[in-house]
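Inverse folding, one chain.
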């Protein structure tokens, strides 16, 4: 065979090979895009409820419709909405956010300006803690429909998380004027809490509960938030009543069980608090409950169990973060949560690494600034902690934990007068503060 013929043959074989690789890649990508995630089993009472049977039936019908017609965007959107709600129900946000995003990307590929597709995508991005991206998507949705109340809700959420609180207030006012309901009143409540107005916050959250359907997950979540507000002003009796009512309407509701656990801990019944948290933890994936258990285990002297639970939180959060690197549909950021988790095992270097990562994304958010300040405090670097805690208090929040931490940072920085005022203010509400933090603040108060 001549040299030129060999050359042409090799080129042809190369093109065939590349074509095959490209074809296989495109086929796998198509299969991946068309993958519909299965429902995960629920736990506890939720696994035996009529609601769960209805959800499974609806899921089966929607999957059948989407497989029969991949261009059926309405069914794809309903499936995405179902996944988003299941994330709330089970706490499996990483899995269900991925499942929902898969459907939404397919819809938006066909219809880039699909309003509900943009709304849901923004919601999932917020769930993934991609708040800046979520805001961009919410603004796209607003361009499509500038009069929709839920769009304003997403703009409230995104601006709050990015630390743009005055802008969030403007959007909350617009939202409640367009649609005064559970979703708008609850956001008004949260903003009032951020600005230190517990009386106004409780009033708005009561209105939110009243506009919801008793027993509905969204309503009971709101009722639990109302209970948490009562906790922060030291009214445990009212909080307990709300949690019990929620559990009567929605048996084994994990958020209400966690509320009951906090009430028990506040009364000094740590064994009951642990039992309630353990039950809630068995029903839903929620690392915040595990973190509460870590503190209570330590309080009861079970250091081994506390360390195991703390390391499990770190493993779970790190796995979620790694998953986001491997799959753009997941993309969860969990650095603020990891910062606190590492503090619970005494690794202040890793805590600072993650706190700064989150700060670089959201330098104006008060919760992020509080996290950075508290990490520096635990490192013994009080001078570095001070500017961050000042930024965390810029909205005049009256959160007892924030005030306690701020008091300790000012105390260690040498400003005893401010420290005393802040710690006394934190104690005046009789709100439950973690036992380790309370020991520190009580000791500081005696020294001032």
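Residues assigned per position:
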């Amino acid at each position: 065979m001549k040299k030129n013929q060999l050359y042409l043959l090799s080129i042809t074989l190369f093109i065939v090979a590349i074509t095959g690789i490209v074809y296989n890649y495109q086929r796998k990508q198509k299969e991946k895009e068309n993958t519909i995630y299965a429902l995960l089993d629920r736990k506890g009472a939720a696994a035996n409820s009529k609601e769960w049977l209805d959800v499974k039936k609806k899921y089966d019908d929607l999957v059948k419709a989407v497989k029969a017609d991949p261009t059926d965007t309405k069914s794809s959107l309903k499936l995405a909405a179902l996944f988003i709600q299941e994330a709330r129900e089970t706490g499996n946000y990483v899995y269900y956010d991925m499942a929902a995003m898969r459907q939404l990307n397919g819809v938006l590929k066909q219809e880039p300006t699909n309003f509900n597709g943009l709304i849901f995508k923004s919601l999932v991005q917020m769930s993934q803690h991609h708040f800046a991206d979520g805001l961009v998507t919410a603004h796209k949705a607003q361009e499509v429909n500038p009069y929709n109340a839920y769009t304003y809700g997403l703009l409230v959420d995104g601006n709050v998380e990015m630390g743009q609180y005055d802008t969030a207030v403007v959007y909350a006012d617009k939202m409640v004027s367009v649609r005064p309901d559970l979703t708008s009143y609850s956001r008004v409540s949260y903003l009032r809490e951020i600005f230190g107005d517990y009386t106004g916050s409780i009033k708005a959250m009561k209105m939110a509960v009243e506009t919801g359907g008793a027993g509905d997950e969204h309503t009971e979540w709101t009722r639990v938030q109302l209970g948490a507000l009562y906790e922060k002003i030291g009214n445990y009796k009212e909080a307990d009543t709300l949690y019990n009512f929620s559990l009567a309407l929605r048996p084994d509701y994990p958020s209400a069980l966690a509320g009951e656990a906090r009430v028990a801990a506040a009364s000094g019944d740590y064994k009951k608090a642990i039992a309630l948290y353990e039950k809630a933890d068995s029903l839903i994936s929620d690392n915040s409950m595990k973190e509460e258990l870590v503190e209570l285990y330590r309080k009861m002297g079970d250091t081994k169990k506390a360390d195991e639970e703390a390391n499990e939180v770190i493993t779970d959060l790190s796995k979620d973060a790694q998953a986001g690197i491997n799959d753009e549909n997941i993309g969860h950021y969990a650095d603020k949560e990891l910062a606190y988790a590492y503090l619970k095992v005494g690794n202040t270097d890793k805590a600072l690494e993650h706190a700064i990562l989150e700060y670089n994304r959201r330098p104006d958010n008060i919760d992020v600034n509080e996290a950075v300040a508290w990490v520096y405090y635990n490192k013994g670097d009080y001078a570095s902690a001070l500017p961050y805690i000042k930024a965390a208090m810029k909205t005049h929040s009256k959160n007892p934990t924030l005030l306690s931490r701020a008091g300790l940072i000012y105390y260690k920085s040498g400003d005893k007068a401010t420290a005393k005022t802040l710690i006394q203010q934190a104690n005046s509400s009789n709100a439950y503060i973690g036992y380790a933090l309370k020991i520190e603040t009580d000791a500081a108060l005696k020294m001032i």
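Confidence is low (pLDDT under 50) at residues 22-29. The CA atoms of residues 152 and 175 lie 5 Å apart.
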